[in-house]
Design brief:
mainly alpha, 9 helices, about 0% strand, transmembrane, transmembrane helix, membrane
């Protein structure tokens, strides 16, 4: 190693000098911005950019007093001598419950449907593969319009076909077409 340095010391010195020049050129001479401290003289003007806000009157008075309005006196209605018997209220018929799925499926098994979409669908009342498998184009458009930034994912990831296969329990066909879960 010593023989190599002794034989090529001139080349090593030239390489070090070139390296220092390149480093100086990169780090010092090629600066696009220069930092200069501007000193102000005593009595120089201050910045004017916020002066309009400083001079503007406040939007709300600091100690605004609100006068309370006097309470209205209730008027007394004359009482009838014999009140008429009220008819017995008839209970309104309860609305028929929406057909609910027998059990809630893990919708995140569908490719492209993560936990956020699962919670969005649950808020819409969609909790099973059978519900998604029964969608037609109009239903897909209705649900897709409510998906926010996930719009288009139903058709792009083919949720309906995935849900049909998962609802039928055909895991072999599902894995061959969409891969393992």
């Amino acid at each position: 190693m010593a023989e190599l340095i002794q034989a090529n010391w001139v080349l090593l010195v030239i390489a070090v000098i070139i390296g220092l020049i390149v480093a100086w050129w990169i780090f010092v001479a090629n600066r696009k911005t220069s930092v200069e401290l501007e000193s102000k003289e005593d009595g120089a003007q201050t910045a004017k950019r916020n002066q309009a806000l400083i001079d503007a009157p406040p939007a709300v008075a600091r100690h605004a007093t609100v006068q309370p309005k006097p309470a209205a006196t209730p008027e007394v209605a004359p009482v009838a001598a014999t009140p008429a018997p009220a008819p017995a209220p008839t209970p309104a018929p309860a609305p028929a419950p929406a057909p609910a799925a027998a059990k809630a499926d893990d919708l995140t098994r569908i490719k492209g449907l993560g936990p956020k979409l699962n919670s969005q669908l649950a808020e819409m009342g969609i909790t099973s593969f059978a519900q998604i498998a029964a969608w037609d184009d109009a239903e897909i458009d209705r649900v897709d319009a409510q998906m926010g930034r996930f719009q288009g994912r139903i058709r792009r990831d083919d949720w309906v076909t995935q849900a049909r296969l998962l609802a039928a329990g055909d895991l072999v066909a599902y894995e061959s077409q969409f891969g393992r879960n």
